[in-house]
Design a protein that fits this description.
The complex is a heterodimer of chains A (314) and B (277). Chain A is mainly α and 314 residues long. Chain A has a single domain, classed as Orthogonal Bundle (MetI-like fold). In chain A, α5 packs across α8 and α11 runs antiparallel to α14. Chain A is flat, with a radius of gyration of 25 Å. About 2% of the residues of chain A have low confidence. Chain B folds into two domains: 57 residues, no CATH class; 170 residues, MetI-like (MetI-like fold), CATH 1.10.3720. Chain B is built from 15 helices and no strands. The longest helix of chain B is centred in the N-terminal third of the chain and has 34 residues. The chains are: A mainly alpha (314), B mainly alpha (277). At the A-B interface, α1, α2, α5, α6 and α7 of A face α1, α4, α5, α6 and α8 of B.
Chain lengths: 314, 277
Amino acid sequence: MFGTPQEQNLRHQSFHQRRRGILGNTLEARKKRLGLVFALPAFLFFGAFYLYPLFQTFYVSLFSWGLLDDPKFLGMTNYSRLFTDKEFINSVWVSFLYSFGVVIPIWFIALGLALIFNRTFPGRQAYLTVYYIPAVISLTVWSLIWLLMYNPTFGIFSVAARALGITGLRMLDDPSTAMPAMIILSIWKGTPVYMVIFIAGLRAIPNDYYEAAQIDGANAAQCLLYITLPLLRPVFLYVMVISIIEAFKVFTPMYILTNGGPGSATRVLSMFIFQNGFQYLKMGYASAASVIFLLILLALAIIQFRLLRFQQND
Amino acid sequence: MPRSMARLFMVVLGQIALLAGAILIMTPVLYMVSASFMTNDEIFSTRFQILPSNLNWGNYIEVFARFNFMRYLSNSVFVTGAIVFLNLLFSPMIGYSLAKFDYPGKNILMLFILATVMVPFTAILIPLFLIVRGLGWVNTYQGLIVPFAMSAFGVFLMRQFIISVPDDYLDAARIDGAGEFRIYFQIVLPLIQPALITLAIIVFVASWDEFLWVLVATAGDTLRTLPIGLAKFREQYQTRFELMMAGSVIAAAPMVVVFLALQRRFLQGMAGLSGLK
């Protein structure tokens, strides 16, 4: 799992030393104690702020609790309610729609840009800087800018639509355009980070491969198809997993631009959890939704690992 | 020579395409800056004004006057600063422990920290709030800071770097009689200095932008950071877009400045995310 030969060697040694324990005055025992001392803050922190909350989410999801009253035990009732709650089903659907609507274009655009920036050309560094700027603008600020750009009176989209003879384009007020509006601003903001990750991945491919291929008479397309893309697979897996988690977490643009509306067109899962938990004070119900949320992401991650491993074996 | 002509043509074409892309990508940002200097009438003009007729610095003054902007700004600086400091303090320590020591429970700790990378923050939002509430930390600085004192990503980044520090250095120091803490502070930390800068940048970017947690864990005005302050401002003054944009420019500026100043390291840091795999 954790790979260098050095480490494997270390683990091998430790297997024999484990019996000697952490007490005593040998150098090995002292080092074990020391390792524990250095790791102690991590045990405390990740225990208190990650492990415990994970169990707590599940535990609270078994209750009906309004934060100010006493919790009432419900068993699995919150879950059965969730599965018949149209709002919740809608939120799951909206989250999938948004997430895949955002990440799939991002994968292609980011990879395309990375392939361009992997070459040398005049002004490369300057272009890279400019292309990265959206990623360093705070998401709150980014959302506010797009609030202006989507404005039905003076926003650039409505103005352009009027110029084309379409009047009354209200991006954020129409259920059919509100979600595309969210997707556009998220692709714009999210692409640069993945572009940079792809660039790093491309840089890590040894040049010898391309030189050897050239000697064998391979053209650029063949190099891309048979060298670059297969070797980029681990990076691609990483980008897939992280981008999907990031997309499912989305909250800020919805909070600022639509508050989940119009209707429930942009009420993603984070919004559903936030509103049920902190506006309607349904702690148990929101916790149950959080558990489902976690399971969805877990399932997606497992599917992706399977998918990419399968491809590697064939 | 037709061949070099064709080549030149491709280069020019490429430059035009890249330039067009750059302008497109920067449009929202330039629009923000431009709108921050406009009058309210200019923004609302239906024939889409690109530039303000004159630079209205008054918007920036009014932002500070009309709401608690200074407070939000200093909250943001303090909270982000504290989170960056704590991460720099703890992450290398744990990374060191995971990279160079062996003890019972280490592999479990490592697997667990790795697994938390996959846990989306929203999924533990409610229990985290309950814990912080139980500690009496709602609407306090520690409530905003402590839950972000470490990150799984930071710990792994540090571990990756410290693994490459040769054991011989550490053993030589031990033979010379250096204490373990001295080894850590005087040998390990200086050797991984570039990684520490990368870590600081990544943590800074994430915490400057934190939204949902601040929204949930603060009540009232005194502890709000810039993102929440701006969002609340938007709720209060629905149509004062020019002030919203002036505030946005101020909120966006620190990160852009850090990015431009530490560009190479910044991009390496972001790409370093893929070093985890």
